[in-house]
Amino acid sequence: MIYLDHNATTPVLPEVLEAMMPYLTTEWGNPSSAYKFGAKLKSVIETAREQVAELIGAHSTDIIFTSCATESNNAAIAALKANPDKRHIVTSSVEHSSVLNYCRALEKEGYRVTCLPVDRDGLLKLSDLETAITDQTAVVSLMWANNETGVLFPVERIAEICRSRGALYHCDAVQAAGKVEIDVRKMAVDYLSLTGHKFHAPKGIGVLYVRRKAPFLPFIYGGHQERHRRGGTESVPLIVGLGKAAELARKHLPDYEKKVRPLRDKLEEGILSSIPDTELNGHKSQRLANTANITFHGIESEALLMLLDKEGICASSGSACLADSDEPSHVIKAMKPASAASRQMIRFSLGEQNSQTDVGCTLGAVAHATTSLRD
Length: 375
Ligand code: PLP
Fold this sequence. Notes:
Blueprint lengths: L1 E2 L10 H11 L11 H4 L1 H16 L6 E4 L2 H10 L9 E5 L4 H12 L3 E5 L9 H7 L4 E5 L13 H11 L2 E5 L18 E5 L10 E5 L14 H4 L7 H39 L3 E4 L9 E6 L4 H10 L2 E2 L15 H6 L9 E5 L6 H19 L1
Parallel strand pairs: 1-11, 3-4, 3-5, 5-6, 6-7
Antiparallel strand pairs: 2-8, 7-8, 9-10, 10-12
Helix pairs in contact: 1-9, 3-9, 4-5, 9-12, 10-12
Bound molecules: pyridoxal-5'-phosphate (PLP).
Pyridoxal-5'-phosphate binds next to α4.
């Protein structure tokens, strides 16, 4: 198998599994218990919280463990309910469905949502953001890196604009973690979401950073876990795995680009230069080092993906969360509304485990598949 879908999910690293094992076998207590067998797990959770906090330059007390980034994104946006006088949300047309669909649900509750457009390269116009924010705007939710194209939004500038205009800023940083440096001390972000399975922890564990003093209402009501901010018995094995993965992501970050970018560039340039009627989606440079989203004009994404799958190559036609729907990519549609590109594109997203051989084999398979589909 050649796995080129790291924006969908990543494999659990052996070190992560090893760190989790005691908590799946012998140390299975409940951290809220009064006796030592359970209660000693509290400090294990706090160590993981510190590991996650270090990855993003946060205080550990500002980290809330959730079940996934979908929950983190919903919970951050729902914090607007803490200020019932402000009923306006600003987001963009290329956000993940966990942001867009929650905003649509809030519209039904009477909130007003402004969805900022992007240009052909997937970039925002910051003047559009400045115009959209009013004194009614409770929260702005704009992602760090796009999951389909890898396009990077200028999050530090966005945060400054939101702060200066009195709106809270939530950043979905799911695709940024482990790929670019995140430091919440350097930007005026109020809420930031992560998910473990995009940086080699298991699925089912997410993070919401909430800046101290930013308003927050629990999204999941229950017990007193997570300082009363998120009820539910903590999943100690998943939290430990997440902490270890965060520590490793921080350690590997200086080499990430050096490893991944040359492979991505070779794949991207190989396809664009040798296969006719292909086009890159997303800004050439303001983009994650691992992602190449390419339109193959005249070829249905699903047909090409099937042929690649037969060769053992895993890629995708957009967000894994929407893969079973028949809808074309809303991200590419927002960038290129007048073209059929949104049904004719493939996202290749590489990881540190990929090799030159993977890229060579993929280039051969893509050339073969596109020729036979066009014939
Ligand atoms: N946000 C972005 C940008 C994503 O890519 C994803 C997952 O694909 C999510 C949010 C949702 O993450 P989770 O699967 O943890 O709910």
